[in-house]
Write a structure and sequence with these properties.
By secondary structure, the chain is α+β, with helices and mostly antiparallel strands. Helices cover 24% and strands 35% of the residues. It contains five helices and nine strands, in the order ααβββαβαβαββββ.
Length: 223
C-alpha cells in the first residue's frame, strides 16, 4: 500500500478538493438515507504541519440516522458558515428531509432555500435573531389575567418525555404553537416551540444535583 506521504502529495497537488467532496457526497447519498440532515461546523485538527498557522474549518451536512456525512465544504472561519450553508446544501438532495443546525444558522436566507428545495427545517432561536426570539419568549410567558378579564386563549400543545440512565433523569417538555404564523415574516414558518429540559443526578437513590435548560425554536412541518 502507498505510504501516507504519497496520499498527502496526491491530495495536495493532483486532485480538486471540491470534486472529491462532491464524489464522496454522491456515494453516500446513493445508499440508504435517513430523514434528518444536520448542518454542523467542525475544526479539523492535525491536517497542517506544525510550522503552518491556523486550522481547517468545515461545514458538513450529516445524515443523523445513517451516521454519515453527505456533504462538506471548507468555510475557513466559523462566522463563514452562514454564507457557505447554501453551498453545502446544494450538494445533496434535501427534498422531504428535515434540516437542523445550531442558532448561528437560523437565518431567513437558509430557511428560504430549504423551502424552495421542498425540504423542512428545525432551528433553535437565540439572541442573534432578537426580534423573533423575543416574540417566541413572550408568547410562552406565563399568562396572569387581570381582574375582570379572562385568560387569553391559546393553541398550545404540550408533550412530555422522561429518560433515565447512567444515574441521571432527564425530563423534556415541549410546547408548540402556530399563533405567530399569521404575522411572522419567517419563510415557511409552521410552528414555534419552547423546549424545557430538567436534569436530576441521583446517587444511591438520593438527588445530588439538578439543573434546567430552556430552548426556543422554529420549525416547518410537512404539508
Amino acid at each position: 500500500m502507498p505510504e501516507q506521504s504519497t496520499y498527502r502529495r496526491i491530495m495536495a497537488h493532483k486532485v480538486y478538493v471540491e470534486e472529491i467532496e462532491r464524489l464522496v457526497g454522491e456515494y453516500n447519498e446513493a445508499g440508504v438515507q435517513g430523514q434528518i440532515y444536520a448542518m454542523d461546523g467542525k475544526t479539523i485538527r492535525g491536517m497542517r504541519n506544525r510550522e503552518e498557522a491556523g486550522t481547517e474549518y468545515f461545514l458538513s451536512v450529516y445524515d443523523v440516522e445513517q451516521g454519515k456525512t453527505v456533504s462538506q465544504v471548507e468555510v475557513g472561519r466559523k462566522e463563514n458558515e452562514i454564507s457557505k450553508a447554501k453551498t453545502a446544501l446544494q450538494q445533496v438532495k434535501i427534498a422531504q428531509k428535515v434540516i437542523t443546525g445550531d442558532a448561528l444558522l437560523t437565518q431567513k436566507g437558509i430557511a428560504a432555500y430549504i423551502i424552495e428545495q421542498k425540504g423542512e427545517y428545525v432551528f433553535p432561536v437565540k439572541e442573534n435573531q432578537l426580534g423573533l426570539y423575543k416574540s417566541i419568549q413572550q408568547l410562552f410567558a406565563p399568562d396572569y389575567p387581570k381582574p375582570g378579564f379572562g385568560k387569553i386563549p391559546t393553541d398550545f400543545l404540550t408533550q412530555r418525555t422522561v429518560n433515565k440512565g447512567h444515574g441521571r433523569i432527564e425530563v423534556r417538555t415541549i410546547t408548540t404553537s402556530e399563533m405567530l404564523n399569521s404575522y411572522s415574516t419567517w419563510p415557511g414558518l409552521g410552528q414555534v416551540y419552547r423546549l424545557e429540559r430538567q436534569f436530576e443526578w441521583r446517587r444511591k437513590g438520593r438527588s445530588i444535583r439538578r439543573s434546567n435548560e430552556t430552548e426556543y425554536g422554529i420549525t416547518r412541518t410537512f404539508a
